[in-house]
């Protein structure tokens, strides 16, 4: 039987794509490690959680695989670690070896060079982290929900894992890991790994992550942490004060997994649990595998903010399964995840809500784009020489999401869904950079359906600043209605009590508040507040939007609430824009400073850093 031309072509394409995508990645600027010469394939942690001294203390063992001949050194990343001793093994016995710890670089930390005989197959480093470790936070009891027991947690992304483990800290490579962790038995440790949910009171806990993951996904927390199962694959871990409300709020997590599997293939990490952190967690969420870390600020009581769970879950495909090779490629993690998140939300909560969330995100991006340095509006952003945290913005998220929505609209859902599913499968447990993604996109979408989207168009999305003129502009019918009522109220055609807010969801409120004009008067703000008690809103996103508006309009009415908000929340996205507006507005500096001084001790070092920089700039 002769082979049809189509199949011959397909085979050629396959060959072409595998040869092209075998291209080497650009080197990761943010690591000192010699991961292109020798890699650790598995690590074992043996750590004690020492709350008294705010230290993790113990050892890490690396199983080594040589990629080149004649390598006599293993170079690891560290930051602010005390290194006690390094041993090597040839698989039979251990002996001490020499090492050198270089001077600390502000961005990359201190390079640790370990002398390696040719027959060494394992390296073991004895060390402790310091209280100021950038990737750990040690909370006093008062900073927790229960106020009685201390709590600690890690935040390793982007380059903070090195502040609590000497490792090759690059998303270009992967390790499996095991860990033995000892802790005060009433301050249970958990990790981003398989672990027995049954409370094990002998104070020693074992963890195992058999799938290879990038180092930024290794995570640990310890505290008065309790467990509640939600469904066959999902559970919450939280302080007892938050356990029930979290389990209720996030009860749809299983439905989210089921939807995502239908779209993008099997969930590959067995179980999916949520760890609810104390309010000082600087992020909304962090996609640590099997165990996403989640801010308690999204427990709103009405599931209005659960897109965050969809987001962290989506990372189980985009990010954790297929990983950005360097931090320049963050949009491959976050843009894809924002897109997948929204698809999950559409499946579970319907199109109306999904479109509102798209529209809010797109509007947020538009506002951010005019403020950012031009270079930082590029998807494939240049971050060499900078801490990835300093280049953080909505661009990789929402511009990335809009790019994928653009492709979806051009090629049609069926083709684009098939493309994405195949992309996740073809790169499962691998890293990929922008250059190789573009080759893959060419081979599997652009050239497969020629004449729809040009290569130049794709390059303009990925390499040019701002948004292409034909970028999707999500349009929500629900918001069109809100817009109408808003206009009528502003024109005094109706008064506040006549705005039809009865059926408004949190999203409609956010749209309404975010789109009030700069000309709005204090009298009008007060009228709204009298009618809807927005200042006292217990929804943290609504409160944020309302406080921001009042700061920008110089309305001191909200000051008291502002103080309690800033003191009780440490999530960067919610507090940093408020400080920024306060300082830019030239609001009562003494008041702002006093609020910050009161709130600062409760913030994560990352949040402290962001706000400190704002005060520095305002001087
Ligand atoms: N992985 C990110 C958090 C992150 C990004 C940490 C870059 C360090 C460097 C996480 O998945 C995330 O995007 N969180 C968002 C959630 C949101 C977009 C739904 C957050 O924390 O706000
Ligand atoms: Zn994310």
Describe the structure in brief.
With 619 residues, this protein is α+β, with helices and mostly antiparallel strands. The protein has helices at 5-20, 240-249, 253-264, 307-314, 330-349, 351-371, 395-411, 413-426, 434-446, 455-463, 477-490, 506-514, 522-532, 540-552, 559-568, 572-584, 589-599, 605-618; strands at 38-50, 55-66, 73-78, 81-89, 94-97, 99-101, 110-115, 122-129, 136-139, 151-154, 175-182, 188-191, 204-213, 220-223, 226-229, 234-238, 272-276, 285-286, 291-294, 322-324, 430-432.
Strand order of the largest sheet: 5-4-8-2-1-11-13
Tell me roughly what share of residues is in helical segments. 25-40%
Low-confidence stretches: 1-22
Q: Identify the CATH class of the largest domain.
A: Mainly Beta
Structure classification: alpha+beta
Helical stretch tally: 18
Tally the beta strands: 21
Distance between the termini: 79 Å
Looking at this structure, what is the CATH superfamily of the largest domain? tricorn interacting facor f3 domain
Ligand roster = ligand BES, zinc ion
CATH T-level fold name of the largest domain: Immunoglobulin-like
Mean of pLDDT = 95
CATH architecture of the largest domain: Sandwich
Please give the radius of gyration in angstroms.
Answer: 25 Å
Largest sheet: 7 strands, mixed
How many structural domains are formed by the residues? Answer: 3
**Backbone shape:** globular
């Amino acid at each position: 039987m002769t082979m049809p031309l189509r199949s011959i072509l397909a085979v050629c394409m396959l060959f072409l794509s595998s040869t092209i995508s075998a291209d080497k990645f650009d080197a990761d600027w943010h690591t000192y490690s010699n991961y292109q010469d020798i890699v650790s394939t598995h690590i074992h942690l043996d750590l004690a959680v020492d709350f008294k001294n705010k230290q993790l203390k113990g050892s890490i063992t690396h199983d080594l695989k040589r990629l080149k001949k004649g390598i006599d050194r293993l170079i690891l990343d560290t930051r602010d670690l005390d290194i006690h001793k390094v041993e090597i093994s040839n698989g039979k016995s251990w002996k001490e070896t020499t090492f050198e710890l270089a001077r600390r670089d502000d961005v990359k930390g201190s390079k640790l060079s370990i002398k390696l005989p040719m027959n060494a197959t394992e390296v073991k480093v004895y060390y402790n982290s310091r209280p100021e470790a950038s990737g750990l936070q040690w909370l006093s009891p008062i900073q927790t929900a229960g106020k009685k027991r201390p709590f600690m947690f890690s935040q390793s992304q982007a380059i903070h894992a090195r502040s609590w483990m000497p490792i090759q800290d690059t998303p270009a490579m992967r390790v499996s890991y095991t860990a033995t962790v000892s802790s005060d038995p009433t301050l249970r440790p958990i990790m981003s790994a398989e672990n027995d949910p049954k409370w094990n009171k002998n104070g020693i806990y074992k963890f195992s992550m058999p799938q290879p993951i990038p180092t930024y996904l290794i995570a640990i927390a310890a505290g008065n942490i309790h467990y509640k199962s939600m469904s066959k694959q999902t559970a919450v871990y939280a302080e007892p004060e938050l356990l029930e409300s979290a389990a209720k709020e996030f009860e749809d997590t299983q439905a989210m997994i089921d939807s995502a599997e239908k779209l993008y293939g099997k969930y590959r990490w067995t179980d999916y649990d949520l760890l609810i952190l104390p309010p000082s967690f600087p992020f909304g969420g962090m996609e640590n595998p099997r165990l996403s870390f989640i801010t308690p600020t999204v427990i709103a009581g009405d599931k209005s903010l659960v897109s965050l769970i969809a987001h962290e879950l989506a990372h189980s495909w985009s990010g954790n399964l297929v990983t950005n090779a360097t931090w320049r490629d963050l949009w491959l993690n976050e843009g894809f995840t924002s897109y997948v998140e929204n698809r999950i939300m559409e499946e579970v909560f319907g199109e109306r809500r999904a479109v509102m969330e798209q529209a809010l995100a797109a509007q947020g991006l538009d506002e951010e784009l005019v403020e950012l340095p031009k270079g930082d509006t590029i998807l494939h952003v240049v971050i060499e020489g900078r801490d990835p945290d300093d280049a953080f913005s909505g661009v990789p998220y929402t511009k990335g999401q809009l790019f994928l929505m653009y492709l979806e609209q051009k090629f049609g859902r069926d083709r684009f869904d098939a493309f994405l599913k195949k992309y996740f499968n073809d790169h499962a447990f691998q890293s990929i950079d922008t250059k190789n993604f573009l080759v893959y996109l060419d081979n599997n979408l652009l050239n497969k359906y020629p004449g729809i989207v040009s290569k130049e168009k794709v390059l303009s999305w990925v390499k040019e600043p701002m948004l292409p003129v034909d970028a999707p502009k999500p349009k929500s019918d629900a918001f069109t209605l809100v817009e109408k009522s808003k206009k009528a109220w502003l024109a005094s055609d109706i008064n506040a009590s006549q705005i039809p807010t009865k059926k408004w969801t949190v999203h409609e409120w956010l749209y309404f508040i975010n789109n009030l004009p700069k000309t709005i008067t204090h009298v009008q703000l007060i009228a709204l507040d009298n009618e809807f008690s927005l200042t006292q809103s217990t929804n943290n996103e609504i409160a944020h939007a309302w406080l921001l508006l009042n700061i920008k309009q110089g309305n001191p009415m909200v000051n008291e609430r502002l103080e309690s908000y800033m003191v009780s929340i440490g999530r960067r996205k919610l507090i940093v824009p408020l400080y920024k507006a306060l300082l830019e507005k030239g609001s009562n500096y003494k008041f702002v400073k006093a609020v910050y001084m009161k709130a600062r001790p409760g913030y994560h070092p990352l949040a402290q850093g962001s706000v400190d920089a704002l005060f520095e700039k305002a001087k």
